[in-house]
C-alpha cells in the first residue's frame, strides 16, 4: 500500500504554503515545502558566487545534489545556519525561479523530495508535485487566486515583517515569476489532469482547509 500523499500546486502567493501546513497539521502528516528547496539552492548558488544562468547549470546542480540542508521545527538550516528569513525575500524567490528552470537542478532535487513521503502521510506544496514528483497521489489540488489578491497577500506579509515594498512591484514580480514557471520546458506549472481546482480569492483559510479535507475523505 502506498504512503498517503496530498499535492497542492499553484502559482506564486496563491496561499499553498499556509493551506498545506494547515492540512498537514489537521491530519498529522508530514509537510514538504518544495519551493524552499529551490530557494535554498538559489542561496547556495549566490554564496558560491554564481549567477543563475544555463552556463552554470552543472555547477548549480552539483550544489543542489549535495545541499547540507535540514528542516528543523519549521526552520530551514543550511550547513547549520538558519536561512529561514534569507530565502523569503523577493530576490530569493526570483533566483529560485531561475534555478528551477534548469533541468539538471530539478533532477538533482527529485530524490530529496520523494524521500519526504513517509508514514503516516505527506502534504506537499509546489508547482509540479502532482504532475512530476508524486503523480500517483490520490488527491491533487491546483490552487489559484487572482493576481490582485495574490499581490495584496504578499504585500501584507512583507509589510508585517517590516520589509518595505510596493503593490505594483510585487504584482509585476509575481506575474514575471508565473510566466517563467508556466512557460519553462521542464515541469512547467500546470494543473495535473486529475487535479481538483480551488480558487481561494474569496475563501477564508478555514474554508479552503475544509474543502481539501472533504476531498481527502472523498478519495479514501
Ligand atoms: O513556492 P515558492 O514561491 O517558494 O517557490 C519559489 C520558486 O521555486 C517558484 O517560483 C518556482 O520557480 C520554483 N518551484 C518549482 N517547483 C516547485 C516549487 C517551486 O519550480 N515544486
TrEMBL record:
- The UniProt record gives the binding positions of ATP as 10-18
Supply the alphabetized keyword list.
Amino-acid biosynthesis, Aromatic amino acid biosynthesis, ATP-binding, Cytoplasm, Kinase, Nucleotide-binding, Transferase
Instruction: Give compartment(s).
Output: Cytoplasm
Principal place where this protein is found?
cytoplasm
Classify the source by domain of life: Bacteria
A molecular function annotated in GO for this UniProt entry is: kinase activity
Q: Where is the Cytidylate kinase domain?
A: 6-215
User: Record's family?
Assistant: Belongs to the EPSP synthase family. Belongs to the cytidylate kinase family. Type 1 subfamily.
Cite the record's note on assembly: Monomer.
Role summary: Catalyzes the transfer of the enolpyruvyl moiety of phosphoenolpyruvate (PEP) to the 5-hydroxyl of shikimate-3-phosphate (S3P) to produce enolpyruvyl shikimate-3-phosphate and inorganic phosphate.
| This protein's name | Multifunctional fusion protein
Amino acid at each position: 500500500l502506498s504512503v498517503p500523499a496530498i499535492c497542492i500546486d499553484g502559482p506564486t502567493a496563491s496561499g499553498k504554503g499556509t493551506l498545506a501546513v494547515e492540512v498537514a497539521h489537521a491530519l498529522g502528516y508530514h509537510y514538504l515545502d518544495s519551493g524552499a528547496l529551490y530557494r535554498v539552492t538559489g542561496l547556495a548558488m549566490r554564496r558560491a558566487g554564481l549567477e543563475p544562468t544555463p552556463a552554470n547549470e552543472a555547477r548549480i546542480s552539483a550544489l543542489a545534489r549535495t545541499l547540507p540542508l535540514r528542516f528543523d521545527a519549521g526552520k530551514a538550516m543550511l550547513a547549520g545556519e538558519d536561512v529561514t528569513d534569507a530565502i523569503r525575500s523577493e530576490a530569493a524567490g526570483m533566483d529560485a525561479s531561475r534555478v528551477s528552470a534548469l533541468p539538471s537542478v530539478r533532477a538533482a532535487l527529485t530524490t530529496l523530495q520523494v524521500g519526504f513521503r513517509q508514514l503516516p502521510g505527506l502534504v506537499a506544496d509546489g508547482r509540479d508535485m502532482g504532475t512530476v514528483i508524486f503523480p500517483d497521489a490520490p488527491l491533487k489540488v491546483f490552487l489559484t487566486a487572482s493576481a490582485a489578491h495574490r499581490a495584496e497577500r504578499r504585500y501584507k506579509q512583507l509589510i508585517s515583517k517590516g520589509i518595505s515594498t510596493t503593490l505594483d512591484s510585487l504584482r509585476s514580480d509575481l506575474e514575471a515569476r508565473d510566466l517563467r514557471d508556466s512557460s519553462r520546458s521542464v515541469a512547467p506549472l500546470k494543473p495535473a489532469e486529475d487535479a481538483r481546482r480551488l480558487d481561494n480569492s474569496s475563501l477564508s483559510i478555514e474554508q479552503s482547509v475544509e474543502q481539501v479535507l472533504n476531498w481527502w475523505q472523498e478519495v479514501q
